[in-house]
Amino acid sequence: MSKLATPRWGWAITGSGHFVTETMELMAELDHLDIFVSKAAEEVVRMYRKELSLNRSVRIYKDKAASAPPVGNFYYGVYHTLIVAPATSNTVAKCVFGISDTLVTNIFAQAGKCRVPAIVFACDTAPEHDTMAPKGMVKVFPRRIDLENTARLKTFEATTVVESLDELKAAIAARKSELSGEPAAAGHG
């Protein structure tokens, strides 16, 4: 199989409600997008009742097969970037320890093996934070192991771990600039 003329964005969603609505809105801004939905993500999307207005070229893959067949696309140059957002502490831990037993963790592993850059919006990045639940804002206190795993993931090659929605937007914009060959916009501060 020859490389595609226009490689695609891959975006994996896990079972986190942390900024799920906002990250799904960001998906709608990308062309040439494939979305990988974990079983838990299917449940979360229903809880938040989010309907996406996506481009007709978007393809959606759900976690329905033990071998995660879509991962083979990484070997054929179908993707230039993988985004995992939002990423639960469970997904982050599995990625850190090389466990590839779900669609999302398998996609992350194959992206790494194929040197496809990844952007991961980890949910557990601070000892305490607020997050929106289906019934309103709640306080979350990530465990030490969750914070340690996020720190470990930051050491992975070709992996950018972001800790906020603004950082996610900036990482996507920087990747778009890289792909277009244009210099990235200077940041403030």
Question: If you compute it from the alpha carbons, what radius of gyration comes out, rounded to the nearest whole angstrom?
Answer: 16 Å
Summed up, the helix count is 6
Question: What is the CATH architecture annotation?
Answer: 3-Layer(aba) Sandwich
The CATH topology assignment is Rossmann fold
| Overall residue-averaged pLDDT value | 83
H/E element sequence: EHEHEEHHEEEHEH
The biggest sheet amounts to:
6 strands, parallel
Task: Give a short overview.
This protein is of the alpha/beta class and 189 residues long. It has six helices and eight strands; from the N terminus they run βαβαββααβββαβα.
Structural notes for this entry:
The protein is an alpha/beta fold and 189 residues long. It has a single domain (8-180), classed as Flavin prenyltransferase-like (Rossmann fold). The chain has six helices and eight strands, in the order βαβαββααβββαβα. The chain has helices at 20-27, 39-48, 89-96, 103-113, 144-153, 165-180; strands at residues 8-13, 33-37, 59-62, 79-87, 118-122, 129-133, 136-140, 159-162. The strands form two sheets. A six-stranded parallel β-sheet has the order 3-2-1-4-5-8, with helices on both faces. Strand 6 (129-133) and strand 7 form a beta hairpin. Helix 3 packs across helix 5 (144-153). It is globular. The termini are far apart.
